[in-house]
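Comment thread on ticket #2218

A.B. wrote:
> Attaching the input chain for the structure job we discussed in standup.
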Amino acid sequence: MPERRPRAAWRRQPEPPADTTPAPPADPDEGSAARSSVVQGALYREGHRVSSPGSLAEIFRQLRKHPDGMAWIGLHRPTEAELHSLAAEFDLHELAIEDALEAHQRPKLERYGDTLFVVLRAARYLDAQEEVDFGELHVFVGRDFVITVRHGAAPDLSAVRHRMEENPELLALGPEAVLYAILDAVVDGYAPVVEGVQNDIDEIETEVFGGDPAVSRRIYELSREMVEFQRATRPLVGMLHALMAGFAKYGTDEELQRYLRDVADHVTHTSERVDGFRQALTEILTVNATLVTQQQNAEMRALAEAGFEQNEEIKKISAWAAILFAPTLVGTIYGMNFETMPELQWAAGYPFAILLMAVVCTSLYVIFKRRDWL
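C.D. wrote:
> Ran it. Output below, let me know if you need it in another format.
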């Protein structure tokens, strides 16, 4: 076998032009018989593409004609008829076909005879919406074929295909090499998501201490995305370790073993970051709730203080009103024009009335002063 290049040679080359084969509509009609979900189909021999059949029937025919070749078939939301056609040709297990049709599966790895069935959850960060979009990928790996069934926009497998085709030494290692390249692409796709989420968390922390009332909703939505991200990354760690455990049993090439270990390191790091994000969001939510409570308490205290001050003013007004009412009452009585009214002929009546007003007002003032109303 020719000398193999280091991993960096096939991972970090400049991006080639996008796959020109037209993809199906974003939301195709699943019941349309005329629609083909084949995004890309190709036959390879010794790491080189030998043909690009345009239909599943042509792929089957050419693969039978070249039994030493490998078929790589990419599908996007295939119909039930297409999947059953693949199942009949490649002897795929009915449970795996059912999972690929229904989608919404958790990441897992199942082995059905000579066929490996892998479910992956890809992710991409949408800058405009500041949210994480998740896609689902099902991969069937057999002795001479790789079938990918994609549900959602991510991941971009055309880039994986181009990288592999530019490195025939790696592609010549067969379907396992394609599987590891797909795993690597999915895991590498998590890195921009991690960076985007980190920026979101930094912004949220600023908003929390800035008193933004809308931040609680943003924390909640990002926390839900992190739960989904955990469901995508955490099972992948166990899946990769299970693959590594089968190195000796299935005679995995040493180069592929190194690739897989590197992918496992990346996904472990990503999983730990996601766990940290979720914990950080939980703590931020707690801090935000505390700050909101403190703000509400401060507002209630300010209202109580305002009410107290208002009550004090009312007491003062009431006290002065009572004091002023006393002479008014006395004056009103003496202002009545009754001939039989007592003390009208009394010489000391006027001084007595004035004295009575002064005594009443002074008494009320002393009483209100002692009760802190004045």
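A.B. wrote:
> Thanks. Noting for the ticket: The chain is about 60% helix and 15% strand.
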